[in-house]
Amino acid sequence: MSAFINEIEIAQILERNQNPDPAKVSAVLNKAKEMKGLDLEDVAVLSKITDPMQLFELFEEANHIKEKIYGKRLVIFAPLYISNLCANECSYCAFRAKNKSILRRSLNQDEIKRETEILVSQGHKRILMVAGESYPKQGFQYIIDSIASIYEAKVGNGEIRRVNVNIAPLDLPDFKLLKEAKIGTFQLFQETYNRQIYSEVHTGGKKKDYDYRVTALHRAMEAGIDDVGIGVLFGLADFHFELLALMQHIQELEKVFGVGPHTISVPRIEPATGSDLSAHPPHAVSDLDFRKIIAILRLAVPYTGIIMSTRETAHMRRDTFALGVSQISAGSRTNPGGYSDSLHDDSGQFCLGDHRPLDEVIRDVAEMDYIPSFCTGCYRLGRTGQDFMDRAKPGDIKNHCNPNAVSTFMEYLMDYASYETRLIGENLIEDVISSMHGLARERAITLLEKVKNGNHDMYC
């Protein structure tokens, strides 16, 4: 039994903070300015904010903390769905085992390489490999082989430099094999932390086991995977509850391993083929509450990355950049073979809100004065887990991340960007360099010169 998710404690905290007075809200926002994180009581207070002025203050503080820690950079990645085979019955998901409305497909290794080559030819350097929770006849070896195929794919000077994975929970020995395959982050969502709702929406397959899933990140970290990604599928249960349960999970990882998750994802339920529930979420989250969730998480765990997928519309994604989001997917497809198929079928896991190609997303991000980053330097130099946090909290990590963001963006502009995007991007880089100081500026200028001289994969 995973006792670290304490629903009784959550209910008591939420009850105490049904209507927090303005002084209490101000005290929590002042505490957040210290960038040392927030506790469950603080998160409950902020989650109950409804006053427009207090919401404005919350959003302003989230923007301030985000820019102080991360600067004006956004990490870019693409999901690569290799299979939609699944043995589970999740009532919100198109991949559920009994759904006859989608075409089942698992890519072979040549097809995986082809999909990867398409992403590389667009300029991608990071991939999140995703698979339904069932594998072809090769079993788990299919996952290991697929990771190798992604890393092997080359197009000119381009290649994938970091493969993160979102797959079914594993036992400790298989997590060790995953570590040996040189993955970046292992990502797994609990979907909902509410046990009753969890049992209602997961009616078949191994995923029915709440405790096995909620302890999976423990096993991953025991196996040496020190970058793990966590998340909730907002809309299944009350978001106030989910936020506090998410914090309990984070605190548990910090207590046991000394470091919490590397990233938090914040997906909302989107319509999925063959799923009535997905079209009518039981606890739908409004756009305003969604913005509030992101801002609260930025204050509560200031040094943890927050991921925004293409589930959301371009407009919503833009709004969340200033509230704490630090990583975004771009040009996504959620069906196996989706990048090479000229006609996209209904075999995706869910409906997308942002269908724009990578170059258009990059141009839009740059026009907002954010630097799109394709950096993978920390992972490849061993700055992960506790070491990353030790550098991030005193601010040292910006001396690496900001120069790397600029150099990888310039590499993208020179090798892949349209003329219009390159023009906007190069002007932005000039402005960013002029605003940098000290060691970060020196490193950025050095890396930029190397890239302009034809070098690739420059990082510090």
Describe the structure.
- With 460 residues, the protein is of the alpha/beta class.
- It has a domain at 396-452.
- 48% of the residues lie in helices and 11% in strands.
- The strands form three sheets. It has an eight-stranded parallel barrel, surrounded by five helices. A two-stranded antiparallel ribbon has the order 2-8. Strands 4-5 form a two-stranded antiparallel ribbon.
- The model has no long low-confidence stretch (mean pLDDT 93).
Task: List its traits.
13 strands, alpha/beta, 20 helices, 460 residues, two-stranded antiparallel ribbon, single chain
Q: How would you sum up this structure in a few lines?
A:
This is [FeFe]-hydrogenase maturation protein HydG. Helix content is 48%, strand content 11%.
Q: Which percent range fits the helix content?
A: 40-55%
Task: Compute the number of strand runs.
Answer: 13
Global mean pLDDT: 93
Largest sheet: 8 strands, parallel, barrel
Q: Characterize the overall form.
A: globular
**Low-pLDDT segments, ≥5 res:** none
Assign the structural class, choosing from mainly alpha, mainly beta, alpha/beta, alpha+beta, or little secondary structure: alpha/beta
Question: Rounded to an integer, what's the Rg over CA atoms?
Answer: 21 Å
If helices are DSSP runs of H or I spanning 4 or more residues, what is the number of helices?
20
Strand portion: 5-15%
Calculate the terminal CA-CA distance, rounded to whole Å.
Answer: 43 Å
**Spatial order of the strands forming the largest sheet:** 1-3-6-7-9-10-11-12
